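#lab-general

N.A. 3:47 PM
ok so I finally got the sequence cleaned up, no stray characters, all 390 residues accounted for. can someone with queue access submit it? mine expired

B.Y. 3:52 PM
send it over

N.A. 3:53 PM
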Amino acid sequence: MARPTLITTPVLLLFVATFGAMTSFFLLLSVVPQYVTSAGVGAGDVGAGLATGALMLSTVVFELVTPRLIARAGYRVMLAAGLLLLGVPSLALTSATSLSAVLAVCVVRGVGVAIFVVGGASLMASLVPAERRGEGLGLYGIVVGGPAVAALPAGVWLAEKVGYPLVFIVGAVSALAVLVAVPGLPGRVTTEDAPVGVVAGLRSAALVRPALIFALTSMATGVVVTFLPLAVPVGSGALASLALLAQAVTTTVGRWYAGLHGDRHGAGVLLIPGVLLAAAGMLTAALVTSPAAVVVGMVLVGAGFGVAQNASLTMMFDAVPPSGYDTASALWNLAYDGGLGLGGVAFGVLAARTGYPVAFAATAALMLVALAPVYRASLTGRTPNGRLQR
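B.Y. 4:20 PM
back already:
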């Protein structure tokens, strides 16, 4: 019996739109804080932190309301709005010379990010056959993760070589050019089920449990992305770059592999290995004076994070009817962004008291606390009837 088709025209168009949106996001993610500290703005390190904070805060807040907006306006309108909100404000950065102007741009772009990460993932889940959902989400993860691997360092390199204005223009064009793909996307996904709101989602253990587990692995990623360059010995910038590249690549590979495996054996069985891999990576990275340990640790963190990404998202989509995909996506993205932010803040406070090696080991221990709810979730596996379980 032939397997149902995974790659259709709407899926390809969604890939195009998502690649452009994520390229715009990652291209400017590190460049904007650098610009804030440059002579053009001159706001210093505090201003750089505020820029990233404003971006992520508006992203997290707007993720809560995006499902309702999608229910009213549909995917086509909302994803187009997301691309516009990512692209047009990027052009405004070319003439922004005050911290307040940059922060305003970051807030608006954060709204665009929220719309796209929530709407894109939920639309992908709607477009692929249920029996190949894990594989489809794995491929979508590659489309999302590719720009993180390439555009993030490319933005910093371009800013040094050609200046900030051109990077801002490229970031704008990356989002605006793929608007041509949006008309080919579905406006709405037809379903007879009643919508599942965010409040109802927060009351469902089938959604909250995997989201909280995933947040712990996301926290580990927030730690290493923020503090690994500071934790390695002075003069080891190349080591930090290599380790972070390894982490980004293995995250993408892990997310894809988890999708293939999950379709055959159930997504729930992958959560325990994902958490164990990421925790082992954090513990290995505690040996910050050993280059081999740092690289191996980041490979493990990336693989565990990627596996947990796909497993948790697939489980959450399996737990709701199609009318609840937007809510499941919103809660998952909240866990993603919240974990990244919490990991950076909490680790910074801990490392200031204990030093980096102890703080890495303590983070690994905290992640292992999640094994009890992970085990309970893994017994559930897929939800055969595709309905919200309370």
